[in-house]
Amino acid sequence: MNSSAASSPPLIQLEGVVKSYGAGSAEELVILHGIDLCIQAGDYVGLVGASGSGKTTLMNLMGCMDRPTRGSYRINGQDVTSLDDDRLSAVRNRSIGFVFQSFQLVPELSVLENVEMPLFYARVPRRERRRKAQELVQSVGLGHRMQHVPSKLSGGECQRTAIARSLANDPVLLLADEPTGNLDSRTGEEILALFAQLHERKRTIVMVTHNPEIAARLPRIVEMKDGRILKDSRSGSSQPLVAASA
Q1: 70-75 and 78-79: which strand pairing?
Q2: Domain span at residue 95?
Q3: For a Cys-Cys bond, which of 51, 53, 176, 185 suits 224, CB 3.0-4.6 Å?
């Protein structure tokens, strides 16, 4: 991170974040223990840890799919901790893009229609959303597959579609949950190369991964254990971030 980025307000800021279930009861289950984490605009972060470490819960909080039991969460300077469900949903739809291991495409819709969906819900006029969706589909190399439904696509093409969809509303934060988990190694490399290109274009990315080889190639690693951040460091690996051409 350069000095100007370090001195600017963080894009993502969690302070003293606790997430528990059954709060105040004798059987309270604490998942996250006082998480402090800042992510600057343009960061590319690998979130790693064993099963049960809390990384998925933390990602859900960052994605505004849940809210902390205690502590605060600010995204782009806005404290979203106490927002009601409707306002939290609005922040999520406007500011955050999601890419999942299982793609989560609508099977009856074409590639183009899947990418259009967030724009439809954002009430973007039809002509404008069609134009933008076409541009996004082209940008991930699927111009020739635009009218195909997911069942006619390869796994890599499905994930490219999901990435294009995640960018539809120009989010400030891109969250990727094991995006190569259902792909073979070659296709996984192509998807990682696509994420690297997005990072080069100054996208802010947090990627959950259980694969230490992938994590070691990311610029920043946040390692979790037992609901706490065990390590937050810049990668010292000499491996290239882009390992394959997209």
Answers
A1: antiparallel
A2: 41-69+85-234
A3: 53
Taking the CA atoms of residue 208, residue 210, residue 216 and residue 222 in that order, the dihedral angle to the nearest 10 degrees is 50
Answer yes or no: is 77 within a domain: no
Cβ atoms of 169 and 97 within 8 Å: the answer is yes
Q: How many domains does the chain have?
A: 1
CA distance 3 to 81: 29
The 10s digit of each residue's pLDDT in 63-121 is 999 999 999 999 999 999 989 999 999 999 999 999 999 999 999 999 999 999 999 98
CA-CA distance, 102 to 4, in Å (whole number)? 37
* Residue 29 counted as domain residue: no
CATH at residue 141: 3.40.50.300
Angle at 201 between CA 113 and CA 91, to 5 degrees: 55
**Angle at Cα 189 formed by Cα 183 and Cα 190, nearest 5°?**
90
How far apart CA 200 and CA 177 sit, in angstroms, is 20
SS3 56: helix
CA distance 30 to 45: 24
